[in-house]
Amino acid sequence: MALLFHDKAVKVILLDIEGTTTPGDFVHQVLFPYARDHLREFLGEHLEAVRADIEQLRADHETDRKHGLDPPNWVEESSSSRVEPVVTYVHWLMEQDRKATALKALQGKIWERGYQTGTLRSQLYEDVPRAFARWRSQQRAISIYSSGSELAQRLLFAHTVEGDLTGYISNYFDTNVGPKTSADSYRRIATKLQMPGSEVLFVSDVATELDGAQSAGLEAILCARSGRSEPVASSYPAIHSFDEIFPDDAF
Predict the structure, then answer these.
(1) Per the CB 3.0–4.6 Å rule, which of 36, 115, 220, 234 could disulfide with 159?
(2) Domain locations in the chain?
């Protein structure tokens, strides 16, 4: 039997992306390979424009080295080879699925070009657009919290097969507010939203993220979409579709 979530105290719905609004295959089989394949070309054309991201990556590399994580060597033999150590380190980070803020910022800028040229078109679960419209009609705000950069989030919802859905979204949060498993991150989000945690519902397919949200006083629901490669062991109430969150017939 489907769970019907209709806690009328909730004023903001905070959503994860991968596995929640967007199939994981799109992220891992389309977005990540696109960023990897176009990284060297992008850096060659925009090296100065992403200097801040590169400096942060250099600092991250030094931290990784000091912590004994054995990152690839960062060697700039000449001014013409400045791109190569960045490419090598970014590929290493991607292979480990690291959530480094500078990495995510760089990926977002590469994806921006893909969306602008029409090469990329984002995929959403089919229930997402109608849920956005329904929640808006119920005067509930929608916010996004993802490890992807704010730019990447905006691009994803602006270039869907259903059209531009950014008009439904009030706020975007990325790892600049902190890790998604940390309660402090959700406290910061609630503060920015100017809402008590009890009026914010966080929806994610990752139980450890829900732990962080619940510890901060937010409502938390597991998004257990069909077709997952592995079932998620969780004590959280689970929905299988956004149709189960504030359905029209609950009012």
Answers:
(1) 115
(2) 12-22+122-250, 28-117
